[in-house]
Design goal:
This protein is an alpha/beta fold. It folds into two domains: 127 residues, Rossmann fold; 191 residues, 3-Layer(aba) Sandwich (Rossmann fold), CATH 3.40.50.720. Helices cover 34% and strands 15% of the residues. The protein is built from twelve helices and 13 strands. It has a seven-stranded parallel sheet, with helices on both faces. It has a six-stranded mixed sheet with strand order 2-1-3-4-5-13. Helix 1 packs parallel to helix 12 and helix 4 packs across helix 6. The protein is globular and about 60 Å long. It starts with a strand and ends in a 6-residue tail after the last strand. It is an enzyme of class 1 (oxidoreductase).
Length: 334
């Protein structure tokens, strides 16, 4: 059986090929799975997809008509998949339920420190031999308050680093994490967290209940000089509302590794094309905003774990095993 893997990055390909060698045939393509590229999958029982694949009804119907029976998503998030349609079509869907939380937590802190200490602006200046300090002043984070929205494995790893900086910890989640409580975190309501925090970092999944969790009203609650970091999902923030607050001169720095309209942009080279996303273009104009291309997970450790789990998911599907990674079971399974 040959698996067709969509959206494979150049760095990822040798790791995928090495992991699948001796187990299954593997064909890697760098294009993302969309309604326009679905025909490539014709005849493949199993396809593997990335987080930016478009697995809406049109894509899923074409996959099913072409003989696909199993989708192995190479990510934890699955908000890009229409699960109801997949179930109706008899498609089994697996995901990677967890991988190194440190990859994302450490990158979130990289964004926080970069915007707090104006590292991108400083590096750009010194390349031009401009060694002035004007406009580069940051703040000590020691003794200030970190608000962690979502305190699962990644949020807890982020909080542990914050504790290492000597920060006060506030948390918001539907469940309290004992590991975070052991760090001294105080769980509060979301509004309290936003009002009190000097740094807010998002670590919750994108669900109907969390879409635009930081809308215009929530953003207005934050301190004028707060730092905001999002390394989870772009749709957690109302980006137009964020741009509106930035235009008022609010926030000391914003670090975004995700963007709510990133599909069709992120992971692709658009340098020779015009990008007609006015909101993203406006966001890029603020000197204290950093936007990266959904790379927080992108470490050898995390990608290796994602690939190993994806291989195991295919083996489990072939053997008929039901695991916690199944998000759409086989037809007939409860």
């Amino acid at each position: 059986m040959e698996i067709l893997a969509f959206g494979v990055q150049a760095d990822e390909r040798p790791l995928l090929e090495a992991a699948f060698a001796g187990h299954f045939g593997l064909r890697c393509v760098d294009v993302f799975l969309t309604p326009d590229t679905t025909a490539i999958a014709h005849g493949h029982e199993v396809v593997s997809t990335s987080v930016n694949a478009d697995l809406g009804p049109a894509t899923l119907r074409t996959l099913a008509a072409g003989g696909t029976r199993m989708i192995a998503q190479r990510s934890t998030g699955f908000n890009n998949i229409d699960l109801d349609v997949a179930e109706q079509l008899g498609l089994t869907v697996f995901r990677v339920s967890s991988y190194s939380p440190y990859s994302v937590a450490e990158f979130a802190w990289s964004l926080a420190m970069a915007v707090n200490r104006n590292l991108v602006r400083a590096a750009t200046r010194t390349r031009d031999f401009d060694f002035r300090l004007q406009g580069l002043m940051g703040r000590d984070l020691h003794g200030r308050t970190a608000g962690v929205i979502g305190t699962g494995r990644i949020g807890a790893a982020f909080a542990a680093i914050a504790r290492g900086f000597g920060m006060r910890l506030l948390g918001w989640d539907v469940h309290e994490n004992p590991d975070c409580l052991a760090l001294g975190m105080e769980y509060v309501d979301r509004e309290h967290l936003l009002r009190e925090s000097d740094l807010v970092s998002l670590h919750v999944p994108l669900l109907p209940t969390t879409a635009h969790l930081l809308d215009a009203a929530a953003l207005r609650l934050m301190k004028d000089d707060a730092l905001l970091v999002n390394s989870s999902r772009g749709g957690l923030i109302d980006t137009e509302a964020l741009v509106g607050e930035l235009r008022k001169g609010r926030f000391s720095g914003v670090g975004l590794d995700v963007y709510e309209a990133e599909s069709g942009l992120f992971f692709l080279d658009k340098s020779l094309e015009g990008v007609d996303d006015d909101v993203l273009a406006r966001l890029m104009t603020f000197p204290h905003v950093i936007v990266t291309s959904h790379q927080a997970y992108y470490t050898e450790d995390a990608v290796g774990q994602i690939i190993a789990t994806t291989l195991q998911n295919v083996r489990d599907w072939e053997a008929g095993r039901r695991t916690p990674n199944v998000i759409v079971p086989r037809a007939g399974e409860a």
